[in-house]
Structure prediction request, 330 residues.
Amino acid sequence: MRHYVDLHLKPSTPEQAFEMTQLAIQLGYSHVASTQPVEGLKAATRVDIEAKRGKELQDALRRSRRRYEIIAVRCLSKEVARLVARDERVDILLFPEDPALRRQNWLDHHEAGLLDGAGRAYEINASELLAASPMRLAKVITTIKRDLAVASHHDIPVVLSSGATTPMLIREPRALTALATLLDIDEDYATDMLSTIPEAILARAHAGHKEEP
Amino acid sequence: MPVRSVRRRYLLFAVETKSLIVEKSVWEAIRDSILNLYGSKGLSLIDPNLIEYNETAKTGIIRCTHDTERFLRASIASIVELSGSPTAIRIQRVSGTIKTLRKKAGIEKPKNTRIAK
Prediction:
């Protein structure tokens, strides 16, 4: 049986984190990761680091590595993207949501080559595909598809998450896999992106967390 | 044995929102979302039809062609607002016949027919 995992809930308060985790479980997710602590329910802790310079990234990683199970980095520059691709402390790599910022910053073959076989994943947030004007959506689809082609060429695991900031933005697992049709991803792989791939990341993160003193 | 020329899928959905939503708004939101994501050709392939919508329970049944269920799910998932209120439409059950869907979901057939669109 499939275990669905949503690795990216972005609630603004711990109360909202509880509500969103509860809803995600009702909708069929076995595990979730939240950027806010969840009291009383089992959820992995996640931090989203946004960095433009290497120094900022190194400082943030040093502070975060023992405090969070999942470390995701939103790469705001090529310099950061290259560092992230080499850094074993990072679990997930993501790029800015704004298509204008993505024009100079995307998953290129050089970074993908560094990521190859490292187990670090590229993340797609379904929230980027929701509530967008047709023009913006077209740009987002083009950008993500360009990254996916590179990821597929280098066998980089791809994770599909909700990226939900409110309960209303959480979707059931099959709705998320259906949204992957917009990116021409076949149903089986889309299901893996929401189950086996994030499950493996979570298992590795748990193991790594336990090993550290 | 007679065989239907077009196979369908019937989807039971629930609308999560704080405001009162009428059938026309639900239908227009779903239709516009399909048009936005897949265009007129997609709309013709999906061939959606809102069979019924209960404004009190905020649940409804929508039909599509059987091989376009994923497209309809994606279009429904893309809806984030109805009549100005944040909204999520969640699919609860799917079936190949409306009779089975109603039976599984424990929904009685409504006495009045649906409004013309």
Remarks:
- The first strand of chain A starts at residue 4 and ends at 9.
- Chain A has nine helices and seven strands.
